[in-house]
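Aim 2, interim progress: modelling of the nicotinamide-adenine-dinucleotide-bound target.
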Amino acid sequence: MSDKNATDIYKIDSLKQFLGNYNPENMALVVDENVYKYFGEHFEPYKTFIIPSGEDQKDLSTIDRLIKFLLDSGIDRHGNIIGIGGGVTLDITGFAASIYLRGVDFGFLPSTLLAMCDAAIGGKNGVNYLSAKNMIGVINQAGFIGYYYPFLETLTDAEYLNGMAEVIKHAIIDGQEFIDFLKEKHLQILSKDISVVQDMVNRSFEVKSKIVANDLYEKGKRKLLNLGHTIGHAIEVSSEYTHGQSVSIGMVMAARIALQKGLCTRETVELIEDLCTIFHLPVTLQTEADELIKSIVFDKKRKLNIIDFIIPLEPGKVQIMSINVDEFSEHLKSILHE
Ligand SMILES: NC(=O)c1ccc[n+]([C@@H]2O[C@H](COP(=O)([O-])OP(=O)(O)OC[C@H]3O[C@@H](n4cnc5c(N)ncnc54)[C@H](O)[C@@H]3O)[C@@H](O)[C@H]2O)c1
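Predicted structure of the complex, ligand included:
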């Protein structure tokens, strides 16, 4: 087994060449169905488990089937399991690999922008349970992450923008330079100009991995990565907004709550709104406040009536604010009715 604190990072030019480095007898690929549809020829000689597209695959029954597949394929404890797909596929792969034979080596080839900039990094693996998201899992870092940028060519615009919301979040956490980069290069980024996208993914990777390196188990600063997600998650489960759209509105609402509390300026709120808008992400919500508040109250992050809510103060300065649920609800109601 490799050192669990060290993740090797590769830039991959040829999938065939990269996969050729592994013993095909003792390696299994776990591949998202759409990735298989577009890139399947590269995986043909290998033992491959295909994950149908969709968040509903992230459950214990998929883990059960995958473990049976690994067993039937004769993968032993010296084997390698490689997840190739978006966050759903990687979360499933990392979890199954971490518990199969008490843990075998695994790596990721993220195929969505969100997975490249976020889900592949930081060791959180797991599945949903009943209606609770990411309820069962482990923290265990992948042995490697391989970046193969042609994956992004077949990704839909909606999925690409889901990833952009996380990139914007990382830029707000990081500071003005990353924000200026996104503003300046937004047209190239939107048209998936690969050299610019690579630069953006590298920057995003650095922001998340630096935070994770100092707080793998989310006791402190890793919580900052939840910027936009407490409200965003509530929006996502109670509306038709995508994950990225929900996070975008969540970040803007977090900034507006910070403004109400006198903790950030209107310029910061506008900066976040502008950044989301140039990447075609919404910044306001059309829904009933009560539904949203109810979802937040049931959010798993709530502890003893207190929410650890993340607010932006200014570019590069983001803070955890522990706030009473009732006070939080009042702020939400007031910004939703502004
Ligand atoms: N572990 C973590 O730290 C972490 C962080 C963020 C998100 N996540 C998890 O990640 C999941 C979301 O990930 P996601 O946004 O990548 O979604 P996803 O894995 O569901 O993929 C989105 C869609 O894109 C398709 N797809 C994937 N790659 C493609 C490609 N190259 N070309 C065409 N289509 C492709 C998939 O089939 C799917 O329909 C959630 O379950 C979330 O909880 C985990």
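The radius of gyration is 20 Å. Residues 32-35, 38, 53, 55, 58, 85-89, 91, 111-112, 114-115, 118-119, 122, 124, 134, 151, 154-155, 159, 162 surround nicotinamide-adenine-dinucleotide (CB under 6 Å).
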